[in-house]
Design brief:
14 helices; Squalene/phytoene synthase family protein; Isoprenoid_synthase_dom_sf; mainly alpha
């Protein structure tokens, strides 16, 4: 929206604009990589994806540090998280929240068909961070579904439905691709953040599966998920493919760098020059980079 339209908007339209701007500010402050990929989205899905990630970031910050730094106990954090979830559900029904980030998300949920079936698993995984310090294979899978795969499914609802008169269900192919891409993203983050998660947060998301000799198996799973997701990207709407390709390729690069280094090395990152090259490649319409299947 132009500055002129922002100045002339009134009432709910002005509030909607302020909420969307608040979500965009959260994303800009927290994630340069995500901000880069988001700019490759077309104007139709872009604000909605920002709204989803802004809400996810706020929930994540409740359990990952700032709330504790403010003096909240785990019980108090859970209460705040419960209230946030209820506000999201209520706002999605009402179409309004006094919390600007929740209001922005609720507008996206109402337009794009994001319901409690996706919201509830996300908040369940956030609560897990308050109680579970070491995961096994089963709890890992449940956590990844709620913390990452449903975010991919929420974004897919946006890709398919933003601007449409009525939301429709995405195809099974796209659902599988969204879930596997989200799972790959999360497992990459678990591997590269393992030292921080252990020493600062006191959590082990990978559990015994990340023991000696098993790290390559996790990377094999990540590569298989990335390869499966890549095959579904061409079926996405045209104004979403470049951004999803850029995000996919960034995590494929991270996975390759993780495979090339030893566990315990400094946190793996992708240099800005490489990020720019991957974004340019996606912008030019190249297919997603191949991962080891």
């Amino acid at each position: 929206m132009s500055d002129t339209r922002s100045r002339t908007a009134t009432g709910l339209a002005l509030y909607d604009r302020a909420a969307a701007d608040a979500a965009a500010t959260v994303i800009a402050r927290y994630s340069t990589s995500f901000g880069l990929a988001c700019r490759l989205l077309g104007p139709r899905p872009r604000p909605h994806v920002r709204n989803i990630y802004a809400l996810a970031r706020i929930a994540d910050e409740i359990v990952d540090g700032p709330a504790a730094e403010a003096g909240l106990s785990p019980e108090a954090m859970e209460e705040v998280l419960d209230k946030l979830e209820q506000d999201v559900l209520d706002a999605t029904l009402r179409g309004f929240s006094s919390n600007l980030i929740v209001h922005a998300f609720a507008g996206t949920a109402r337009e794009c068909g994001i319901g409690p079936d996706l919201v509830a698993p996300f908040f369940a995984s956030m609560r897990t961070d308050l109680h579970t310090v070491q995961h096994d294979a089963s709890s890992h899978d449940a956590y990844v579904y709620g913390s990452a795969e449903v975010i991919g499914l929420m974004c897919l609802q946006v890709f398919v439905n933003a601007g449409a008169p009525h939301p429709v269900a995405p195809s099974a192919q796209l659902v599988d691709g969204a879930r596997r891409l989200g799972a790959a993203f999360q497992d990459v983050n678990f591997l590269r953040d393992r030292a921080h998660d252990d020493t600062v947060l006191g959590r082990d998301y990978l559990g015994p599966a990340a023991g000696e000799g098993e790290r390559d198996a996790i990377l094999d799973r990540i590569d298989a998920d990335l390869a499966a997701a890549a095959r579904t990207i061409p079926a996405l709407p045209a104004d979403c493919r470049r951004a999803v390709t850029a995000a996919h390729d960034l995590f494929a690069e991270l996975a390759a760098r993780l495979r090339a280094c030893a566990e315990g090395d400094a946190r793996v990152r992708v240099p800005d020059t490489v990020k720019a090259r991957l974004a340019a490649r996606a912008l030019l319409g190249f297919a997603p980079r191949e991962a080891r299947a």
